[in-house]
Amino acid sequence: MIVLMENIGNETDWWELMDEFANFTGTPPTEEYSPCRIEIETLNKYAVLVIYALVFMLSLLGNSLVILVVLYSQVSRSVTDVYLLNLAIADLLFALTLPIWAASKAKGWIFGTAVCKVVSFLKEVNFYSGILLLACISVDRYLAIVHATRTLTRKRHWVKFICLGIWALSLLLALPIFIFREAIEPPYSRPVCYEDMGANTAKWRMVLRVLPQIFGFLLPLMVMLFCYGLTLRTLFEAHMGQKHRAMKVIFAVVLIFLLCWLPYNLVLVADTLMRLRAIKETCERRNDIGRALDATEILGFFHSCLNPIIYAFIGQKFRHGLIKIMAIRGLISKEHLSKDSRPSFVGSSSGNTSTTF
């Protein structure tokens, strides 16, 4: 497994070759180029398959119900609800790719370049649209509670344009992945779905990693921290008990997103710093980061099925909407609907900014 790089003239060439097929986001290295004994199977593939299947089923069911409930509640649909609807659509689209990712973990990438591009693209779009939608929700809550303004939130057609802008930006940030991802068969390894950018793969990969992390993660995260920090301060100072309850779902959604995706992005930052030589690279550190990337990526995948669970346990109006739909369809007795008292809209100075969940 250990290959001596005797035929390489200088240290720069050695690093370039080693980076070409390094252990990056689940991509196995080639023994031909790596001087380290890098573990290709970092996690038990059977456990991973079970996790993927569980996430797929929960996400498919949960996000479909969320979309159904929001679409049924046209009269009481709020600005935040529109954002959460788009979030559910993004999670659902990503969930549909999970069986393919699961199969690739078991057998390598056997689906060809076209499928590689599409599923990688959907994964990236899901991540970027998720954090950008949450950032917009934080701005909406900040304007409605801290500044008590209804100028933007009252006009729902603006929300549609904002959501279209979010999808456009997410597609733009994910576009490099769609362009450069290909099905590759590296020596001494199973086929992989991987970026292929020619001779300057290592350098371009750094650019395509750093820029999305800044504009697709760090900046939206700073917006959320700023908006929710001031929103929380306002709520506590004003002792707004009703608004505290209305904000529970939103804070839970943001917290779950951070718990699921922040570890992966922190490991990705560490890996980036290691490849930029900002921190020393060793074989042990490379293996540790490879294992951490695989584990935290699975944690990120979990996010696609968790939001509906939050709505079900915390969101009273989501439960009421779901019970109402089931009663209309004759799945349950209408007595359940009468017993389930409809909670009042709370959460802002305007009904248009309250949340269904």
TrEMBL record:
GO cellular component: external side of plasma membrane
Keyword Repeat tagged: no
GO BP terms, alphabetized: calcium-mediated signaling; immune response; neutrophil chemotaxis; positive regulation of cytosolic calcium ion concentration
Pfam families documented for this protein: 7tm_1 (PF00001)
Cell compartments where the protein resides: Cell membrane
Gene Ontology molecular functions: C-C chemokine binding; C-C chemokine receptor activity; C-X-C chemokine receptor activity
Transmembrane portions of the chain: 49-71, 83-102, 127-146, 158-180, 214-236, 248-267
Membrane topology annotation: Multi-pass membrane protein
SUPFAM superfamilies: Family A G protein-coupled receptor-like
Positions of the G-protein coupled receptors family 1 profile domain: 62-311
Protein keywords: Cell membrane, Chemotaxis, Disulfide bond, G-protein coupled receptor, Glycoprotein, Membrane, Phosphoprotein, Receptor, Transducer, Transmembrane, Transmembrane helix
Family listed: Belongs to the G-protein coupled receptor 1 family.
Protein task: Receptor for interleukin-8 which is a powerful neutrophil chemotactic factor. Binding of IL-8 to the receptor causes activation of neutrophils. This response is mediated via a G-protein that activates a phosphatidylinositol-calcium second messenger system. Binds to IL-8 with high affinity. Also binds with high affinity to CXCL3, GRO/MGSA and NAP-2.
Subunit structure: Interacts with IL8. Interacts with GNAI2.
PANTHER family: C-X-C CHEMOKINE RECEPTOR TYPE 2, CELL ADHESION MOLECULE
Entry protein name: C-X-C chemokine receptor type 2
